[in-house]
Amino acid sequence: MKTLSRRGMLRLFGVGAASAAIAACQPAVVKETVEVKVEVEKIVKETVEVKVEVEKPAAKLSGELIFWGHDQHPIDLAATGFVERNPEIQWVSPHPADRGTKVQAAMAAGSGCPDLFWAEATSAQDWGCNELLTDLTEEILPYKDDFHPLKLNETFIVKTGKYIGWPGDLSVSAYYYRFDQFEALGYGDIDWDTLTYEDFYLMSSEIAKQGKYTFVFPADGWGALFMFALHQLGGTAVSQDGQKITVADDKGIQAMTIVKGLWDCGGGLDVGWWSAPYWAAIQDGTLIGDFAAAWSKGFWEAQIKEAEAGLGKWRLAPFPTGAGIKYRSGVWGGAQLVHPKCAKNRDNAIAYMKYAFGTIEGAALAGSWGIIPGYRPYLRSPLFLRLKSPIFGDWYFNEFWAQQEQQLSTEFFRPAGWGAVSSVIQREMPPIMTGEYSVEEGMQRIVELATPDFERTMCKF
Amino acid sequence: MSEAVAMRPVALKPRKGLARRIAEHWMDYLFIAPFFLSFLVFYVYPFGWALQLSFSRWRGFGPMEWVGLENYRVMLKDPYITQALVNTLEFAYILLPTGIMLAITFAVILNIKDLAGRGVFRTLYFVPYVTNSVIIAIVFTQLFDDTMGWINQGLIALGLDGVKWLRGSPWAAKTVVILLTHWGGIGYNILLFLGGLQSVSPEIYEAARIDGANEWQTFWRVTLPLLRPIIFFLTIIATIGLLNMFNQPYMLTRGGPRGATETLMLRLYNIGFAQQRYGDASAFGFLIGALVITISLIQIRLQRRWIG
């Protein structure tokens, strides 16, 4: 037998290694089915006093339905009911990290897109403007009266005249406060309905002298406060058609003046929003109130477990009022469901949207943690109104949110390019607060600094 | 006869073609192919694609639109580019000399003969270098938090006022970024200088001692000149690294307060990934690259004269 030469052995080894490498590089097909927790249904069943007729699905659905969202998403909660009604649907919810970038890459590639994506308003507007999302106009128009105009506006693309998303979270906001702490500090008889910002400044200032704080205001600025105030005044940072920055108009100046009043009163705690010191201040009773969205409740529940943190002692109040104030709420977040055009299962996706945010049963499941679906029949139902939360004790807090829904503006818009303006507002707020610029100068400066980014990200006609 | 032998032409070997030479050495090429393939796929192709992108308008979807030099013009007029450039240069030219001086100092101390616990100290100084920078940043955030940070709690315990390290004061935030960068990087520099010091022949020090040089003169006239090549190397490498600084400001402050710690790379990240302006970000990347190359070439020229 001829012995193998050194060169021959190397040749054999090289071919073997190359073959192994090629074989190892074949992608593995993994299908992941997520078991969605069913226990949330208990909350729904226990609190229901009146049986609700649920719509039956029209046609039998089958196949996959792929959703990309964060772990333990409300959409996964509603999926339990949807899959129960459509047992041949395979719900796939992989929770990919960096899903915002991934979905953009998938849309750019034209393949690998999820059927459902939970998109923030300005992202949905951006993608809708670039015709990446399925037109849902015919699907949503029959439901038009079941949603607040603000939510519908966020799914409507002015440039194309189409609706590209299904309204999801209501994103209504209010002032969370600990009534026991306010009573102890001598403010137990506040009429929150008539409280003005001037009253709030004075109250906050006095409370701060006693070592407590009534809201959060980080030293590097807090854009959310500005957006709340702007919403209340009936203003908008960007015009509805997304062609103009309007943040420096009279309403923008007045909104920033309100925020400066909050800064000057000294009642704001200088910690990062939702940072460890923030939660520590909530838990030890230093922070006894804050302006926050309805969807914050789930996160607050995770942090407020003890009596010292105010378990059962929290309440909600409308935002303060004052000259020029038209609305007593604000908008923060509030995503919608979209179906990218490059996804495969259009009919399944639309059926899911109609179920989760177009039926009371679906909305109840989606709303059982965190978000408040904006579907009005759900907001009027006992399933919503009779929910309780440990942080609010026996108080039916959703009766308040149902009223706050009426306080959403029809004049506040977040089209493509809004993100560029919002980030500059946050960055340029401190010098306005410290008096380096007057409010008028500061707002004009914001427009100048935001314009280049805005022009590169807006939805151009 | 001898002339005939002398005149006889030497037979030349026939020149082989390229294809034949490759065929003869195919095994060798096969073994070096993986590196070149991966180099082509992961360096050359992305570089070419990024170059094309820098001349196009593209936000991650739809077709790329050729816009020539517009992205470059837009980025040069970016309202925050000047601040980012100043921040980057401040970080680079504070961190560079202080980093080198501290590293030399520690290396000289660690090189002292019969120093007790030398091995332990060397390990301690090098541990931050091998620790994940994210973990270090998390610890620094806990240390320097404006409200509950341990540093401020210590200051308050001493009867002093706390400092708004991360969110309030621009220079306090810069200081924390500088401290974090030194903490993570100094071990590597110390190691290099220590190696350089240990390669110096003892006879040179003995000769200096015989000539009457004291410790300071020995350090300044003997040790430091012998460390010039290492200083040169570190200056070039560190400058490139510092001009590309991203991790520290991103993890600590996200560029705040008010952009005081936003470096060029962090601005690029915000434009590219936060705003999905990929064409602009790509152009910005090439501008930063040109800046780094220019500064490095100037440094090399100046330092070559210094080394001699």
Brief overview:
The complex is a heterodimer of chains A (461) and B (308). Chain A is an alpha/beta fold and 461 residues long.
Would you kindly provide a written description of the structure presented here, covering whatever features stand out?
The complex is a heterodimer of chains A (461) and B (308). Chain A has 461 residues and is α/β, with parallel strands linked by helices. Chain A folds into two domains: 40-170 and 333-385, D-Maltodextrin-Binding Protein, domain 2 (3-Layer(aba) Sandwich); 174-331 and 411-457, D-Maltodextrin-Binding Protein, domain 2 (3-Layer(aba) Sandwich). Helix content of chain A is 43%, strand content 9%. In chain A, the strands form four sheets. In chain A, strands 2-1-3-12-6 form a five-stranded mixed beta sheet. In chain A, strands 10-7-11 form a three-stranded antiparallel beta sheet. The radius of gyration of chain A is 25 Å and the shape is globular. The termini of chain A are far apart. Chain B is mainly α. Chain B has one domain: Orthogonal Bundle (MetI-like fold). Helices cover 73% and strands 1% of the residues of chain B. Chain B has 15 helices and two strands. Chain B has helices at 2-7, 18-24, 26-54, 70-76, 81-110, 118-130, 133-144, 150-157, 170-198, 202-210, 215-226, 228-243, 247-252, 264-274, 278-307; strands at 56-57, 65-66. In chain B, strands 1-2 form a two-stranded antiparallel ribbon. The radius of gyration of chain B is 27 Å and the shape is flat. The model of chain B has no long low-confidence stretch (mean pLDDT 89). At the A-B interface, helix 1, helix 4, helix 12, helix 19 and helix 20 of A face helix 3 and helix 14 of B.
